[in-house]
Amino acid sequence: MFQDRLSNNTQKYSGVNAHEIDYKIFGEEMQFVEIELDPQEGVIAESGTFMMMDDQIRMNTIFGDGSKQEKGILGKLFSAGKRVLTGESLFMTVFTNDGFGKKQISFASPYPGKIIPIDLTEFGGKFICQKDAFLCAAKGVSIGIEFSKKLGRGLFGGEGFIMQKIEGDGLGFIHAGGTMAKKTLQPGEVLKVDTGCIVGFTKEVEYDIEFVGGIKNSIFGGEGLFFATLKGPGTVYIQSLPFSRLAGRVLAMAPRTGKGSKGEGSILGGIGDLLDGDNSF
Q1: Does residue 278 lie in a domain region?
Q2: In the chain, how many domains are there?
Q3: Where would a tag sit more exposed on the chain, N or C end, judged by fewer CB atoms within 10 A?
């Protein structure tokens, strides 16, 4: 069964009136979300997340996010420019059901982890997330940028000065690597997190950084020089496997020669390759 459709909330955020969509999430480690669209309903998505769709769903590539906040060519160019600052493409893709009945379209997660539905009506119309967390959303939801107002957070916070923000009164989907933890912070409650493990948080949460402290901790601790601190009230989502950590481990294990590595798991590693005569000079 599909998840219950979002109720029609009369309160509108940032001038947005997003389409109402139904969805179902499949899988455990490599998930995908299947969205059901009524006639003329649409969904926006990042390039490269599309998986499959029914016939009579029309695909259209646009500047920006296609929300009602964009007015005229200057508004579209500004929206597209904001996306470049977050490291994303100038373009987004809109998928619209042009048929007469319900149609399904699916979007897949980019690496092992969890897909998280974000109902913006539950979070006051705004959710802040890391730059590569956004997957897709109901058409009408605005995808923008959130600048850090603190120099230290921007320089050492792991996400830089710019994060993404999702605004509106609709449903969006973000992706977390590995296993996802949801924490509800009480007023004044502080959670310390590895800077790369933050997926996103509600607009009330205060986000800052804190020096780890101690010479041995800083040099030999292996956890970096700074923690991220998240202060309540609000809701935060934490991931156990940031993509940067996954990519770093894969890169570290990649063979250093064109012939591949026969010594994976060996205590000798590359020295073993020299001893077995597999390297040529």
Answers
A1: no
A2: 1
A3: C
Give the CA diameter of the chain: 73
Place of tokens 């605005």: 142
Spell out the residues 6+ positions from residue 11 whose beta carbon is closer than 8 angstroms to its own.
Answer: 121, 169
Map tokens 């921007």 to a residue. Answer: 154
Query: The pTM is what?
Result: 0.74
Task: Kindly report, residue by residue over 152-197, the tens digit of the pLDDT.
Answer: 444 444 444 578 889 999 999 999 998 999 999 999 999 999 888 8
- Kindly state the DSSP code that residue 197 receives in the 8-state scheme: G
1 lies in a domain?
no
Residue pair 28/109 in contact (Cβ under 8 Å)? The answer is: no
Asked if residue 261 belongs to a domain, the reply is: no
If you average pLDDT over every residue of the chain, what do you get? 75
Give the range of the structural domain holding residue 143, as residue numbers without chain letter. 22-251
Which candidate, 171, 203, 168, places its Cα nearest to that of 14?
168
Check which CATH number belongs to the domain holding 72 and give it: 3.60.160.10
Whether 274 is in a domain gets the answer no
